[in-house]
Design brief:
heterodimer; A: alpha/beta; 6-stranded mixed β-sheet; 4-stranded mixed β-sheet; 12 strands; 28% strand; globular; B: alpha/beta; 8-stranded parallel beta barrel; 26% helix; 29% strand
Chain lengths: 204, 231
């Protein structure tokens, strides 16, 4: 059972439909007390400032802190940004601090970034960070086109970490990021056609 | 450049529109979503008309979210009246506003920005050309407003992208009217075109660095003959 954090923000139903389309059970959790076990997804399509505020108000920060010790945590778009140290969207606010990264505006001229781009995720990396499920797979990578829709991006706080090579080509912001049991996607896997379908089967 | 699909949605079914006056049944959401993904469309614009000749209730629109769509959905029409419910369902990724575009001061803009993020908000300007002037249609007030630089600057300040919808050409496969971009200064890399877009429109759109083009179904099926009979 995959748990989708519901604080009244994000494309919750899209994510639920995405998971269920691969015959995996999913449910929305509106209260940390409802949670018992299983992976947790923090959805996107919202302002990261507002999302972080609501996660903290409802004590989901405590749940994610505790659950991340043994369960997979997946952040999507604003959900990814909420797992970082801070965001400057709608005024600076501290994030949940799981990733040593910061969220900043991509372009000061106001334009966002909406496009499909190539993406490759190594199964060895997923395994290294305890994000791969136990089903055997002969694949080494999942490759495909993924959908980005964001005005803010996730950057290194200080010097770039040479071990983390998951940045968008020719850019300094991350396409996705992994740390023990946690993964964040700047793109929307739930809206990335076959790439998304493969991904949810691997990390369910 | 993204290439999307523009469709009309009414009471659980999708339709092809011709000039916004005549309608031909296209299929159920499942068929449309699968077909759009099969043809590698980047996204789907679901136009949900608020006013006659066809209009839909919120309940019927909500049914769209019962179906898994593996590519992004943009909903347009009847959003404001049902804001609370959109939060409940949240099965779409982006929202395209028409009526709100024409309100200079409205707190809803700030509220939507806070709740959805700017990347999720689009403006949609349905336009017609009359006597060498381009007019934007404000559907909820049944008004035509001249498209001027002030309007454009304000909208691009609020929204992530703007959809220019050529109503006169919609469903006719006759080409989008690019002349609208000659009289005003528009950031074309944040502009989406829709209405009459055909394969000949693509090179021009690419040359202008347009962000996305939306096809109507007719462009692929040469249904103009059917339209001629319907008239």
């Amino acid at each position: 059972m995959i748990n989708i954090v519901d604080v009244g923000l994000g494309n919750l139903i899209s994510i639920s439909n995405w998971i269920k389309s691969q015959n995996v059970q999913a449910r929305l959790i509106t209260d940390p007390d409802i949670y018992s076990s299983g992976p947790i997804i923090i959805p996107g399509v919202s302002s990261s400032h507002n999302l972080i505020t609501k996660l903290k108000e409802r004590s989901f920060d405590v749940l994610i802190d505790e659950a991340s010790k043994k369960e997979k945590i997946v952040g999507i778009c604003a959900g990814f940004q909420s797992l970082c140290i801070s965001t400057e969207e709608d005024g600076m606010i501290e994030g949940l601090g799981h990733f040593p990264l910061v969220t900043k505006k991509l372009n000061q001229n106001g334009s966002g970034r909406t496009l499909w781009d190539d993406c490759t995720i190594s199964l060895a990396d997923l395994r290294r960070y305890n994000l791969l499920n136990k089903s055997p797979s002969r694949k080494k990578y999942i490759r495909g086109r993924v959908f980005f829709n964001h005005e803010y991006g996730v950057f290194d706080q200080d010097l770039p970490d040479k071990n983390q090579v998951w940045k968008v080509k020719n850019e300094s912001f991350y396409s996705f990021y992994m740390k023990n049991n946690l993964i964040g996607f700047q793109f929307h896997p739930e809206k990335s056609a076959n790439f998304g379908r493969e991904l949810i089967k691997l990390i369910k | 450049m993204r290439i999307g699909l523009a469709t009309i949605y009414h009471q659980g079914n999708f339709f092809q529109s011709f000039e916004g006056k005549y309608f031909k049944y296209l299929g159920k959401p499942r068929n449309i979503f699968d077909s759009a993904e099969y043809h590698n469309f980047s996204e789907i614009l679901v136009i949900h008309p608020k006013n006659p000749p066809i209009s839909s209730s919120y309940a019927s629109t909500k049914k769209i979210t019962d179906f898994f769509c593996a590519i992004p959905l943009i909903i347009s029409g009847d959003i404001l009246e049902n804001k609370a419910q959109w939060f409940d369902t949240s099965g779409v990724e982006r929202y395209a506003f028409n009526s709100l575009c024409f309100e200079e001061e409205n707190d809803l803009h700030d509220q939507y920005l806070k709740d959805f993020g700017r990347q999720a908000l689009l403006g949609i300007i349905p336009f017609v050309k009359e006597e060498n002037h381009y007019y934007a249609l404000d559907y909820s007030r049944f008004k035509k407003r001249i498209i001027n630089q002030n309007l454009i600057d304000r909208l691009f300040h609020i929204y992530d992208e703007i959809i220019f919808h050529d109503i006169s050409s919609h469903g006719l496969n006759c080409g989008f009217d690019f002349n609208i971009f000659e009289s005003i200064n528009i950031p074309l890399n944040r502009t989406i075109i829709c209405g009459g877009v055909n394969l000949n429109s693509i090179p021009t759109a690419k040359k202008l660095n347009i962000a996305a083009v939306y096809f109507e179904n007719i462009s692929f099926h040469s249904e103009t003959l059917i339209y001629d009979h319907m008239r």
